[in-house]
Design brief:
heterodimer, A: 470 residues, alpha+beta, Uridine Diphospho-n-acetylenolpyruvylglucosamine Reductase, domain 2, Alpha-Beta Plaits, seven-stranded antiparallel sheet, 18 strands, globular, B: Fumarate Reductase Iron-sulfur Protein, Chain B, domain 2
Chain lengths: 470, 437
């Protein structure tokens, strides 16, 4: 029955899309069965590549008529399984919608399609001496649509915030297939609910983003980069606290532990020293301020017990160091076959406790956990180095993960700082929400997507039982 | 396809599974993969291809013609290997996949079978035959017959593919390497004794580069041992699924050069070097050759790598070079930069040559589309990559392009010629040799 339905849907899609924009052969759609998340796989019925919002609208209407779910995907670099296909779904891939439509230098905005690569946005902004700060580690290939749908963070989150802070407007195709514009070029705009914000971070469960109006800021004129090494984690954490207490907000305060340092150095060969902990720090802005701040940061690092504090030799060296840091997650895959990255985030004041707990949890469950992350904003990436084929070990990973999440919540933190809930963290979500707010989440979903067609099963399950309860 | 008696276990199934598992599909490879960036379809990406290999190893997918096509769509440029933080050994996976495709005979008939037979199994297995082909080609070109035939319009009678290829035939040199380089040559004061590999295409089309390499080595106090008849290094074979032939050639090379008698064995072709450095791996299970192959790997050096290692003598600034300023750019051979990780050394050498002003080439480490015999088997993709490369070259305003691999050399040379450009393409070592003279 189901089979027959999807055949007719595919026939209809075929009349709508040019041959290269619809994939139905298993060999073509297999690689759309996963994203950047370990161990999660699904299988789509077809993959479509619409080039316009109109085409997206038609696809959504067709899928709705056939009661077939749609999973939206950019370049598939997500880290929570958010774009892995649901059973029998159509994957809607945005890579053909990849134009920068307008750069407005009077209002400092840029209008783009969702398939534009994040780094290309910042490069286009740089050509006008403007700046798009959010810089997730996958920025060389991640798409802006995916960034908005997951409200991605990045290395510069501490000073500049996250993707949400740079979205002024969105065009979305909602579950009924209609195209809506939400937002404006106005810095101040309080007309009605901020519906745009409902769609930011909605992980493709409420609508499909087809245009994004981005806010840009002036490009900082100067930047300085510092590398500090430590005999232990404690001194690194103290440095971070002392810098913030000195009322300096650097754009980047990244932390790497010994395991991560070793893997990153193996790959990038940028001369990272052998040490227990390392801070990668950057400050940017007006040249005079940058000069003052970097000096102060250097002094604080030494006072807090750093072994060694060095400045990047030049711009190229600074870029090499940042690129090396961005490879951390993937580089950790060198150690064990399966690499599971977590995203637990705590208030900054609780960082030291959290790091110590992660270390103790690793020991308790006899697991290899490497930790790196955005120390300045409390966003840590404890990473399990394991083997998905070792079921006994995977059980221990599950237990350790639960322990880490429980402790995160205890400290007033969140189970995900920047990767999204997707499939990977779905079961931990109820621990963070009380029953009322958890129900509210699902009420919003049901209001906007009553037939549960858009990325079903992501963030939370919306089953029959659920509907009766509410 | 006929039934075989006992189906041989696939390499993809037999290999250590963790090699396939190593790919965590993070996507960091995507922006560096020329075929993915061209189509934006995951099956044409490194992680897509690896997922397919894994599906075959898991028994979830058939090793079929579709897979064979995909594996032959891959350039084998190894840009993904440079980009991969997780250290996935794509080169080995890729080679295993091609061996499986060939051994299972799933690629299907067609012109490619003829080309493979002619190139991989025949001409490049027999150095003397290769030279005979080269000599004939030279006579065809030098006698004026080529010009006559080109004018006559007879080429139109050839199948389109062949007619398109004819202008790409390399210009064969009048003298091959053995006519230019003695079996042993020694400098006044010898510090090192090195073997010089003359290559196949290099030997026929660029024997002058081999002579230049010998001159540069002599200038840097290296005695040069250069056997007159050298077999192919086997890279063409390994990359096209013929591992047994590749092993045979590796053993021949080791016997010919006797690595235990030399300080280093020098190659000046990026593609050959990348494969030559893997004899240890190739012959690991050969009790007679395993150890010698490891020594071979240790001593095998790309010419740029070797020169920087021995702290080469920079050329002197003379009257001619003092004021001259020639804008030059450097295109990296994939198997030199991605395969051998040699990036800074050729630049260092170029920067040491007086009178050259080097401008960085955008996407200097992107494949030019030559990729072994890819420009014959996949002419359309190859042409797109060449156009992309030529566009970036044009933007540098260079009058000279330096590169260190005969495949790239010919591909870019043909591209420049077709586009009516006057810029010339040279090997960095030829430029260095000239500066020494």
């Amino acid at each position: 029955m189901n089979q027959r339905k999807s055949v007719t849907l595919i026939d209809e899609l075929r009349t709508l899309l040019a041959p290269g924009l619809l994939l139905t052969e298993l060999s073509d759609i297999r690689p759309y069965g996963f994203d950047g998340t370990a161990g999660l796989k699904g299988e789509a019925t077809a993959v479509v590549f619409p080039a316009t919002a109109e085409a997206v609208s038609k696809i959504v209407k067709l899928c709705a008529a056939h009661n077939t779910p749609i999973v939206t995907r950019g370049t598939g670099t997500g880290l929570s399984g958010g774009s892995t296909p649901s059973e029998g779904c159509i994957v809607l891939c945005t890579v053909e919608m990849n134009r920068i439509l307008e750069t407005d230098t009077k209002n400092l905005t840029m209008l783009v399609e969702p398939g534009v690569v994040t780094q290309d946005i910042d490069e286009a902004a740089a050509a006008q001496n403007l700046f798009y700060p959010p810089d997730p580690s996958s920025m060389k290939i991640s798409t802006i649509g995916g960034n908005v749908a997951n409200n991605s963070g990045g290395l510069r989150g501490l000073k500049y915030g996250v993707t949400r802070d740079y979205v002024m407007g969105l065009e979305v195709v909602t579950a009924d297939g209609t195209v809506q514009w939400l937002g404006s070029k106005c810095v101040k705009d309080v007309a009605g609910y901020s519906l745009r914000d409902v769609f930011i971070g909605s992980e493709g469960t409420l609508g499909i983003i087809t245009k994004i109006l981005i806010k840009l800021i002036p490009r900082p004129k100067a930047k300085a980069t510092l590398l500090a090494t430590y005999p232990s984690m404690r001194e690194a954490a103290e440095t971070v606290s002392a810098i913030i207490a000195a009322q300096i907000i650097p754009c980047t305060l990244e932390f790497l532990d010994r395991k991560t340092i070793r893997c990153v150095e193996d790959f990038a060969q940028v001369g990272l020293p052998d040490c227990e902990a390392l801070l990668f720090m950057e400050t940017d802005g007006h040249p005079t301020v940058v000069a003052e701040e970097i000096e102060a940061m250097e002094r604080i690092a030494r006072e807090c017990g750093a072994n060694d504090v060095t400045r990047a030799r030049d711009d190229l060296h600074a870029i090499q160091l940042a690129t090396a840091r961005r490879s951390a997650f993937s580089a950790l895959a060198r150690i064990r076959p399966t690499t599971i990255l977590e995203d637990a985030t705590v208030p900054r004041s609780e960082l030291a406790k959290m790091v110590a707990f992660i270390e103790a949890t690793g020991k308790k469950y006899e697991l290899e956990i490497a930790t790196f992350g955005h120390m300045g904003d409390g966003n840590l990436h404890p990473t399990f180095l394991t083997d998905e084929r070792d079921h006994e070990e995977m059980e221990r990973v599950e237990l350790a993960m639960k322990a880490i999440f429980d402790f995160t919540i205890e400290l007033g933190g969140t189970i995900t700082g920047e990767h999204g809930v997707g499939l990977a963290k779905r079961k931990f979500l109820p621990t963070q929400f009380d029953p009322g707010s958890y129900a509210l989440l699902r009420k919003v979903k049901r209001a906007l997507d009553p037939n549960n067609l858009l990325n079903p099963g992501k963030i939370f399950e919306l089953d029959e039982y659920d509907a009766e309860q509410e | 396809m006929q039934n075989r008696n006992e189906p041989k276990k696939l390499r993809l199934e037999a290999m250590n599974y963790s090699m396939l598992q190593q790919c965590m599909h993070c996507g960091m490879c995507l922006p560096t993969c020329p075929t993915y960036m061209e189509t934006k379809r995951e099956r044409n990406s490194p992680r897509g291809r690896i997922a397919w290999m894994r599906a075959i190893a898991d028994g979830d997918a058939e090793l079929d013609k579709d897979f064979a096509d995909e594996i032959y769509d891959c350039l084998g440029c190894l840009a993904c290997v440079s980009a991969c933080p997780a250290d996935v050994d794509y080169a080995t996976l890729f080679e295993a996949a091609r061996v499986d495709v060939e051994e299972q005979d799933v690629a299907g008939p067609g012109q490619r079978v003829f080309w493979r037979w002619l190139a991989v199994k025949t001409i490049f297995m027999h150095p003397r035959l290769l030279r005979l082909v080269g000599r004939s080609l030279y006579l065809y070109q030098a006698s004026g017959l080529q010009a006559l035939i080109r004018r006559s319009g007879l080429l139109r009678l050839l199948p389109k593919r062949l007619a398109d290829l004819e202008p790409q035939t390399p210009k064969i040199r009048a003298e091959f390497s053995h006519q230019l380089i003695k079996q042993t040559e020694a400098p006044e004061h010898s510090r090192y004794c090195v073997g010089l590999m003359t290559g196949c295409v290099q030997d026929l089309a660029f024997s002058d580069i081999n002579r230049d390499t010998a001159d540069v080595l002599l200038h840097n106090d290296c005695s040069v041992v250069c056997p007159g008849v050298q077999p192919c290094c086997g890279s063409l074979h390994a990359h096209n699924g013929e591992l047994e032939l590749a092993k045979k050639l590796a053993r021949q090379q080791i016997d010919l050069f006797k690595p235990e008698t030399l300080d280093a064995i020098i190659t000046n072709a990026g593609g050959c070097g990348s494969h030559l450095k893997t004899y240890g791996h190739l012959l690991a299970n050969d009790p007679e050759y395993a150890e010698r192959a490891q020594e071979w790997d240790r001593k095998l050096k790309d010419i740029h790598e070797w020169l920087v290692e021995i702290d080469f003598t920079p050329p002197l600034i003379n009257e001619g070079s003092k004021n001259a300023s020639q804008i030059i750019t450097y295109h990296e051979s994939c198997h030199l930069c991605h395969g051998q990780k040699i990036r800074s050394q050729p630049r260092k050498i170029l920067d040491a040559i007086p009178g050259l002003q080097r401008v960085e080439l955008k996407e200097s480490d992107w494949c030019c589309g030559s990729a072994g015999i890819y420009n014959i088997t996949r002419p359309e993709t190859s042409a797109k990559l060449l156009d992309r490369k030529l566009g970036h070259i044009e933007a540098t305003g260079s009058t000279t392009i330096a590169t260190s691999n005969p495949g790239c050399h010919l591909q870019i040379q043909n591209g420049l010629k077709k586009a009516g450009k006057t810029a010339t393409i040279r090997h960095p070592i030829s430029l260095l040799a000239e500066a020494y003279r």
